Here is the input.
Amino acid sequence: MPASREPTAYAAPALRRGSMTPVPHRVTSVVHETRETVTLTLEPVADRVPSPVAGQFTMLWAWGAGEVPISVSALEDDGVLVHTIRDVAGVTKTLCASKPGDVLGVRGPYGRGWGVDAARGRDLVLVAGGIGLAPLRPVVHTVLEDRAAFGRVLLVVGARTEQELLFRGELDGWWHARDIAVRTIVDRSSPGWAGSVGVVTNELASIDLDPASTYAMVCGPEVMMRVVAQHLTDRGVPKESIEVSIERNMQCAVKTCGHCQVGPFFACTDGPVLTWDVVDALLTVREL
Amino acid sequence: MIVDLDRVVLPASGLDELFDALHVEGYPVLGPTVRDGVITIAPVTGPDDLPRGWGDEQDAGTYRLVRRDDGAYFGYAAPAGTWKRHLFPARSVLWRARMIRESPVIEEAHDEPGRRALLGIRGCDLAAVAVQDRVLLYGAHPDPVYAARRQDLLLVAVACGTPASTCFCASMGTGPGVGEGADIALTELDPQDPAQHRFLIEARTPAGQAVVARVAGERARRVDDEAAEAVVAGAVARMVRSVDNEGLPDALRLGAEDPRWDDVARRCLSCGSCTMVCPTCFCTDVRDEPNVLVGVDERVRVWASCFELGHSYLHGGAVRPSPRARYRQWATHKFATWWDQFGTSGCVGCGRCIAWCPVGIDVTEEIRAVASGAREQSP
Amino acid sequence: MVVTTMAEELADHRFFRLIPSALRERLAGCAKNVVFAPDERICVEGTHASGFFAIRSGRVNVGIYVPHQGLQVLETRHAGDVIGFSWLFPPYRWQIDAVAAERVHAIELHADCMLPYLEEHPSDGYLLVRMFAQEMEETVQSTRLRLLDVYGRDRARLT
Here is the structure.
């Protein structure tokens, strides 16, 4: 934080119109991942938006309902967007009820994404809780395309129950075969569940880590991210090597409405991905 | 850098020439005027619309107009109204969308008021425009509504000689003189003496020069310059409140758990008046307003406040549910984190938040208390 | 094949690593290796708590048996964990069922062997009980976090 100082000089860039105007995209596929989660694939009707990177989000708009920030859950070419949305009522309910052929609006992509490049040459530990697996899936895809660039890769996935695990098909088979270790753990067991029961830190505790060479990306509810980041820190992983994705109320997504501020940061622009050394300091202040 | 291209003196009785010059150059004028018991900002067509002979008394939770014993046109401190309202409207429609053959067709709203002159803007409010420029114009996504209203704006600022007790622009470095960004700077001189009552007019930009060139003024003399300096110096001397910005951002950050926040929370109503009258506050709600009957979905943007409980709404609750946290957010953002975000303080020292707080909370006192507590703790 | 003593095997286990070697030696005298096949019951709720198990490899499901629904698994224990606190205090009865989720190698330590020694050597008793208290705290914390239901629709609301 700076001491008071002279204002820094600014130069006005060229004006751009339309940063608040959604770009129409047509729904081409709807996949029901779980009872309340849907993956939509969107194609541009005419104009494209810039290709997102892993960890970024767009503001998805449904006519008459409104906009919500949704992370991209896969990276595609040709302006195609993939979003996995959880129905928590409101706009998300409308989005989850989309049918192929529906036209939605897209603004973005926005935000600071996952530091995949920073993780090259290191052991990558991905910890996902609930819907938090969606923003991390593009990281896994990126890693698989260039597996040799990373050391050990571990994905730990936590969910409420087996029924709420996302991307089961990919989790169950494909990633195992590609030399990424995948562990799943549920809060509560259900009939037929043969996996672990507990919280993600229980699973992490049973895995060997080399703290010095570990780079971690953690995504899920804030309570879960705090607990996991603290666990990794206690085991010697430097805080700067742990990334989390913060969530705040987002409306404009372009650093002008003010809602998403957490301390000095705008979650829409300085985040949502931030390193734990920064976030830890912020979250120690309750109700910041 | 402040450059005076032309410096002339105009008798107060000739102020209508300035209006004529603005009119000829194509600038409708917004300026201070008395309305509803306050000095507010509205279209003004001539000197008679200005608050001639009016002053103000302001203190914590207090504002009243008082009659002056002279005919000063600008004999008050800061107007109750803000210029912000004219650059950053309280409600804007950004676009309208209709469903046509099951596809939304979006039409952006265009609102270009054209060139205008802001006459009588004080140093504090001038600095506030520069602060809002950084937020709304100089980021990666310039705001079209603000940009349209900001371009072709002629800023005719007036130095202040009559600070209220709520003013602290001097300690914030924004006044009482006229700083950077003005096209024309006025200083009102000797209003008590009708024979000497005059304006020192300084053109600071080519656009300002074009207007000043049309005014039949005399060249400013040394005595006029000295009188102008005395006006500002006198205002500085009379200023009662101040903020010590040295190390303030760090002090506020360290003082996040200071008991003073609990203390102010017992008084603060979370009404948000301070944010409404603040010339730099920029928070808005961006939302859809669908009208199913006529088949139109409007995207609107309305002023919002970090004091609203729903401002930080997330997953069924607020991140900042307590009034304590919300007051802390406002004060810390204004005086500390704004520096990180935009490279300046968010406060210009206009004092409106102090005057218009219904319970008379003085933000300068609150942050002083927190900062001194934090400074005690860390060497 | 490398032959190790029980004391060495205990030293290899996460739970015993921070216990002084003298106490470890003593405990080794109360310990034996056990193997469980997948789905084999390790302990039964309500029966006498005969001691505790330190898991060397394999996962163990811990839960409560509910009539008509079978074993409700409430947590999974991994290599390095221990199962069984109830042998330390009355009524000395298992509170849970534990079942091997896969082939499990464990070390079983007997209460009848340990308790008299610990009673007579309270400082050793303190060390061991403190290790157990730490395990219990982690279990309680994991339980609290799941009670919060952070992945639930209302995201960690209890009301």
Notes: Chain A has a mean pLDDT of 92. The domain at 23-110 of chain A is CATH 2.40.30.10 (Elongation Factor Tu (Ef-tu); domain 3). The longest strand of chain A covers residues 23-34.
